[in-house]
Amino acid sequence: MQPATPTVFVVDDDEGVRNSLRFLLRSVGLTTRALGSASEFLEVYKQNQPGCLVLDVRMPGMSGIELQQQLNLRGATIPVIFITGHGDIPMAVEAMQHGAFDFLQKPFRDQDLIDRIQRALERDARNRTALTQHARIRERFESLTPNKVMAAELGVSQRTVEIHRARVMEKSGADSLAQLVRMVLDLETEQAAR
Fold first, then answer.
1. Mean pLDDT calculated for residue range 68-97
2. Are 52 and 117 in contact (CB under 8 A)?
3. What does the pLDDT average to over 83-105?
4. pLDDT above 90 covers what percent of the chain?
5. Backbone angles phi, psi at 101, to 5 degrees
6. Among 187, 193, 177, 176, which Cα is nearest to 140's?
7. Largest CB tally within 10 Å, which of 4, 34, 63, 156?
8. Residue 81's beta-bridge partner residues?
9. Least confident piece of the model among 20-34, 100-114, 169-183
10. Residues in a beta bridge with 55
11. Rounded to two decimals, what is the model's pTM?
């Protein structure tokens, strides 16, 4: 299955800004989707869609900050680059505290936005790779048969223990005991963070 092409979502209530940004981003080969409101974005965005979000802070209805909070509640990992003509330091701090990737004040140089989008797309790709690896490790870990008692307590032979160890290594996909331990520790850390 071919991975989806990253999409740069532009959400701004100003049609002129949307059209200008769509033209700019397409001129450098970026797949772009421009929308006029936060609610329009929420209707079309799927969390498995790679990309980033260029988001106006102030919009009628749901603001950019409120959209970011909604995405956080949904567990979305899409990098958010805020743009605003009315930015202030407290607003930028709030956006960054809620996980914004970057914050640009209008007017900005086209190249500054393009550079930030490229970095956001790179981060999104890294995040998606890490999430996929964690999911695979979790799947492998969950495929292991529970084995809570030591071989000595069961009274089984050394060969039986070796066979079980080999199956654990095969099912987990680990190449070494150290890698298996690292996988388990990563899962425990992830579960503790929930």
1. 83
2. yes
3. 80
4. 42
5. -75, -40
6. 187
7. 34
8. 54, 102
9. 169-183
10. 11, 82
11. 0.69
The predicted structure's pLDDT at residue 26: 95
109 or 151, higher pLDDT: 109
**Which residue has 């509640």 as its token pair?**
73
Q: How far apart are CA 138 and CA 73, in angstroms?
A: 23
Asked if residues 87 and 105 have their Cβ atoms less than 8 Å apart, the reply is: yes
21-34 b/e (C-beta count within 10 Å ≥ 16 → b): bbebbeeeebebbb
- 33-37, 55-59, 188-192 — which one is most confidently predicted on average? 33-37
- The amino acid present at 138, given as its one-letter code, is R
| The two three-digit tokens of residue 173, written as one number | 């996909």
d(Cα 111, Cα 194) in Å, to the nearest integer?
Answer: 38
